[in-house]
Write a structure and sequence with these properties.
Largest sheet: 5 strands, mixed
Number of helices: 12
Distance between the termini: 59 Å
Radius of gyration: 31 Å
Helix content: 25-40%
Number of strands: 20
Shape: globular
Length: 546
């Protein structure tokens, strides 16, 4: 028996507090972390096997001189590795799923953080197989969240208007860490714009620690009994902190679901004294604001690595229990553009909706499992292998800039005509896109149509503008004359011509108006083919190959 791959015990930080069982050196495996836990083993059978065999004709056990053992669980001590804990947890999930479905589970898709190493992914798959689960696929957390968001892209009018091409930010705020992913979503294909970010120093536990101190201070104020928490040193304080931390779960759920105040009640918190306190949304957000701002700062770092600005983010998807807090969404929305979408803006969080951060990963994994189950029936070997780890179809090339066509006009503003962005930047290759362009034929005669194919550069224009004055500011105008007027940044997306790739020309005819179909075909080898033809008349097709 060998220890599964995991972090070495010598590499673990010794000064970082933990809310789990104490981590120790495994007694058998060198430099392997483990947990020493107290468990309750099942009670022994009241009768031994020999005594059970001795029964009377009425099937009654025979009399025995041995005292009947106690039918109570027996305390025991066990040493568990992280792989053992994972196996136990997955086995309990499997049993719950089978009990709910009423039948056995044939296979499952398991989500894993994007920052997991190959050794950690192998250990996760081994633990799942040890729990009796047939792993169909290991999917990134961001991939599962994006998959479910894409499957419900048309659930709201706001999301449907955004279109199939978008830049998506996935914020996974759990109890102990923050995971960030920036994805380019192109017609249902997802591509990382930067390597996923993992911050183990920022999570929901940090919010709990601040709330613990808030309620502990309130408890001391009401009862004059000192209570030191986060961290606690004395035994009574440790016990009180554990009870208070458990009660905070209800408090946070109430704050996330309503705009009113939430209570925190604990029986016999310390010295036999009960405690009941309350906190409103404003105070809650004040306590959690340092964590919110920390998330915003980490998102800014991720965008900087990707070479993007805040206004270039089209949609935010939340995952994790601590991402249910509306204050976090307000903090992020202050940096996004006005038409950017979040689950709170679309109203899909409340009541376990499609934007509920606590279920988005599970729902995304369920959708992927259904897809894989359908593929396994009648699909060829190449398609099945595409979903395996290390598949060559996963690491694909992507476009560096947006390629489209320009329908020239007399307008001098902008690009000088009507622009159609055919293949967006960061689109996975190979790719094919088809668009329709309406052309006016008011004179009813034939018309020559010319299209220019351009590679464009997208950027952000930043201007300094004066902040608008409020109505009551006119009364203090004389006092503020000497002070400098406050300036704010106004950001705007820009598109500029970069490389001229060629032109297309065709003849269209009709009564009043017609449609021109423009198709882009970009192969993985780098070959680009752009064609245009009048709708319903493929013989008018004009082709440009770059």
């Amino acid at each position: 028996m060998t220890s599964p791959p995991c972090h070495r015990f010598s590499e673990l930080p010794k000064d970082r507090p933990t809310s789990s069982a104490p981590v120790i050196q495994h007694p058998e495996f060198p430099d392997t972390p483990a947990y020493k836990v107290q468990v309750l083993q099942p009670a022994p059978s009241p009768l031994s096997a020999a005594a059970s065999a001795l029964t009377t004709k009425t099937n009654t056990p025979a009399a025995s001189q041995v005292a009947t053992p106690r039918s109570e669980p027996i305390p025991a001590e066990r040493v568990l590795t992280p792989a053992d804990v994972t196996t136990l947890f997955l086995r309990s999930l499997l049993q719950s799923a089978e009990a709910f479905l009423g039948k056995s589970v044939d296979g499952a898709v398991i989500t894993a953080p994007g920052w997991f190493t190959p050794a950690q992914l192998d250990a996760l798959q081994e633990a799942a197989e040890a729990a009796g689960i047939r792993v169909l696929q290991l999917v990134e957390d961001a991939g599962a969240a994006a998959l479910y968001a894409a499957a419900n892209a048309s659930a709201t009018a706001q999301s449907a208007a955004l279109g199939p091409d978008r830049t998506q930010l996935v914020v996974d705020l759990g109890a102990s860490s923050l995971g960030l992913s920036l994805l380019a979503v192109r017609q249902g294909l997802f591509h990382h714009l930067a390597s996923p970010a993992h911050h183990p120093d920022l999570g929901g536990d940090a919010i709990d620690d601040r709330l613990l101190k808030f309620f502990a201070k309130d408890f001391t104020k009401k009862t004059s009994v000192p209570l030191k928490v986060a961290p606690a040193s004395e035994t009574l304080d440790l016990r009180a902190e554990a009870r208070l931390r458990l009660a905070l779960l209800h408090t946070k759920r109430t704050i996330a679901a309503s705009v009113g105040a939430a209570t925190c009640a604990v029986e016999s918190l310390k010295d036999g004294l009960d405690y009941t306190g309350s906190i409103n949304r404003l105070r809650f957000d004040m306590e959690a604001r340092p964590i919110y701002r920390g998330v915003v700062a980490r998102v800014g770092e991720l965008l900087e690595r990707a070479g993007l600005d805040w206004i270039q983010v089209d949609e935010v998807v939340y995952a994790g229990g601590s991402a249910c807090l509306p204050g976090l969404d307000l903090e992020l929305a202050a940096h996004l553009r006005e038409d950017a979408l979040t689950p709170f803006i679309t109203g899909t969080v409340a009541g376990g909706g499609i934007g509920d951060p606590t279920t988005v990963l599970a729902r995304g994994a369920a959708l992927q499992a259904r897809l894989l189950a359908e593929i396994e029936i009648g699909a060829d070997e190449r398609i099945r292998k595409a979903f395996e780890r290390g598949s060559e179809l996963v690491g694909v090339k992507a476009t560096a800039r947006t390629i489209g066509v320009l329908f020239p006009s007399a307008v001098k503003e902008g690009l000088g005509g009507e622009w159609i962005g055919g293949i967006q930047t960061e689109t996975a290759l190979p790719s094919r896109r088809t668009y329709s362009l309406e052309v006016d034929l008011s004179d009813g005669k034939e018309r020559k149509i010319g299209l220019e194919v351009w590679e464009v550069k997208e950027g952000v224009k930043i201007e300094k503008v004066k902040a608008p004055k409020e109505e009551d500011e006119d009364e203090r105008e004389e006092e503020e004359e000497e002070e400098e007027e406050e300036e704010r940044e106004r950001k705007e997306k820009t598109i500029s011509k970069e490389v001229f790739l060629g032109s297309l020309a065709l003849t269209a005819e009709g009564r009043k108006r017609t449609w021109v179909e423009v198709q882009f075909l970009f192969e993985a080898s780098g070959k680009l083919e752009v064609s245009a033809y009048q709708s319903g008349k493929p013989d008018t097709k004009s082709v440009l190959v770059v």
